[in-house]
Amino acid sequence: MPPLLLNASRLLHFPPFPKPYFSSSIPFRLTSLRRPIKTLRFFTSSRFPMDAPPIVLPVKERIELSEKEDQIFARLLDVVRHFGLETQLRVAGGWVRDKLLGKECYDIDIALDNMLGKDFCEKVNEYLKSVGEQEQGIGVIQCNPDQSKHLETARMRIYDTWIDFVNLRSETYAENSRIPTMKFGTAEEDAYRRDLTINSLFYNINNSSVEDLTGRGLKDLKSGLIVTPLPPKATFMDDPLRVLRAIRFGARFGFVLAEELKEAASDEEVRSALANKISRERIGHEVDLMMSDKQPVKAMAWICGLKLFSVVFAFPESPRPPIDEHCDRLCISHIEAAWSLLQAIGPALFTDDQRRLCLYSSLLLPLRCTSYLDKKLKEAPVTGCIIRESLKLKASDSDVVVNIHNACNRFVELFTLLESDEIPENIRADLEDEFLEIPSTSIKRVFTGLLLRQIKDFWRVALLTSTLLDPALHLTNDNLDRTEGLDSRTEMFLRAESTITQLGLDGVWKTKLLLDGKAIMGVLQLKSGGPTIGQWQQRLIKWQLAYPNATTEECIDWIKQSQAKRQKLSD
User: What's phi and psi for 171, nearest 5 deg?
Assistant: First the structure.
């Protein structure tokens, strides 16, 4: 919907036919919606969450297989025995970690000690054919050393579950080359090439045992420590994305980042490698996993604390106005404030996707008024560029964040409007024109309805994000206290959300016009359309918001009488 720019003076004063929406029956000023508010620990720029003591999670002594896992592993061993292979089958990485923590995991990666993944998949199909079962398709993901993807991976479905197969590896680097020479390696060599010790554990399918070949994977899992098997800088230079993986797993489990790891993560050479060696798609995928995980604020605070913010959320060239050097701290302050508000409100009001985009919107809120010149030399919002280009997320994600930022000022106006007994003249003037006068009792509903029609399903996200811009509670570089004003923001959101719901506006964007363009042309006795029809459609939206129970006949009568009285005044 185009912005409201209707400021023409009112020439007609007559009540439309249907009874207007009488909003005074709704208690806009709700006296108290206080509820117990959960307290979220916040972290300042001088003390990051990695300094907090680790969360110690119970670790099982042995892995208990589900019925489906037992079935899959038995099938793989059948293949090994049928062809007389000497292959050791090991489940690697996250599956082993999660099973030891008592968590279900459906991401099964099989490491092979003496053959390529594709070759083993072909053996599986040969076995399936020999026992009269249907062969399965094999997908191959090629290696891409330039993007630190060093291994070819084969995929196939076994008992309706996707399984990845890859060979154990060993690497050697030629002098002055960052691309390794790959060869088959031992399980121990492969374990030391993993990103973290907690991800270096194997489950040997052949003998049903957990293998801790670095000698500290189980220990670090039990003590809650994020450590690399080899010196961290070497590990990060091998694949710089591991920096973000370390942050993600540390935040997810509440573990502590080792001091040497933190030092390496913030090293200029590692930061440069992350910016130049890793695709934006891979960086965006890691960030999106953090945002969708249990502790997104902790992860973002670590990104800021390790001086990675400008690398991960890369800004376009020549932003206007220039971006403040402390912008990263301000961004973290906003996402922390939004997260604490989400925890206070509770999860029921938001879908997972709305929660995720709420966090992106709040994180980038300090940049909402910053623009740059795109490839077509058109002014565009920096926030949209970060979502779309720096993180390579969906175009629709970028559109939602930009739309939320664009609507924030109107939502701040809405807070004032819903709390006031008076209607500001500028709002009335924006809504009315010579053909339309809106009863005072319906102004709030019309203004709010138009705003929700613009933002649609994400209106609660915009409402929450806009509480961060309240003048009395606004966060600045001089005031980064995210806990201050939490009660006020919570009540502000709950009052507005309750009022909007009671006004019957949730889903208002789905409301269809009583008359389409052709019908309006007929009522106005016009032979062609043009801008006039669009203007009447905008009036009709507002009229229907003011009179939600009106009929088509009443709508036609209103248009006819509005036009007739306008013509009389013109004469």
Answer: -130, 145
The stretches of 169-253 forming alpha helices (DSSP H) are: 187-192, 217-223, 232-238, 241-253
Under 8 Å between Cβ of 340 and 42: yes
Q: How far apart are CA 198 and CA 57, in angstroms?
A: 13
Beta pairing, strands 202-204 & 209-211: antiparallel
Q: What's the rounded Cα separation, in Å, for the pair 409 and 469?
A: 8
Place of tokens 């005072």: 440
CB atoms < 10 A from the CB of 291, how many?
Answer: 21
Determine whether 276 is exposed, middle or buried from the number of CB atoms within 10 Å of its CB (0-12, 13-18, 19+).
exposed
- CB within 8 A of 54, min separation 6: which ones? 223, 224, 225, 254, 255, 256
Contact 467, 419 (CB under 8 A): no
Q: Is residue 195 a contact partner of residue 243, using CB atoms and an 8 Å limit?
A: no
Q: Which of 414, 394, 512 is nearest to 462 (CA)?
A: 414
Residue 331 contacts residue 363 (beta carbons within 8 Å): yes
Whole-angstrom CA distances from 408 to 349, 403, 419, 454 are 19, 9, 17, 12
CB atoms within 10 A of CB 45: 14
Q: How far, in Å, CA of 500 to CA of 503, rounded?
A: 5
Structure confidence at residue 504 (pLDDT): 96
Rounded-to-integer distance, Cα 388 and Cα 395, Å: 6
Q: What is the pLDDT of residues 396-426, one digit of tens each?
A: 999 999 999 999 999 999 998 988 888 888 8
258 — phi, psi (to 5°)? Answer: -60, 145
Low-confidence ranges of the chain (pLDDT < 50): 1-17, 22-49, 145-149, 174-178
In the three-class reduction of DSSP (H, G, I as helix; E, B as strand; rest coil), residue 478 is classed as coil
For 436, left (φ over 0), alpha (ψ -120 to 50), or beta? Answer: beta
Question: CA-CA distance, 425 to 448, in Å (whole number)?
Answer: 16
DSSP annotation of 208 = T
- What is the enclosing helix (H) or strand (E) of 153? strand 153-158
- Whole-angstrom distance, CA of residue 35 vs CA of residue 490: 9
Q: Rounded CA gap, 133 and 128, in Å?
A: 5
**Which residues on neighbouring strands pair with residue 164, listed in sequence order?**
109, 155
pTM: 0.85
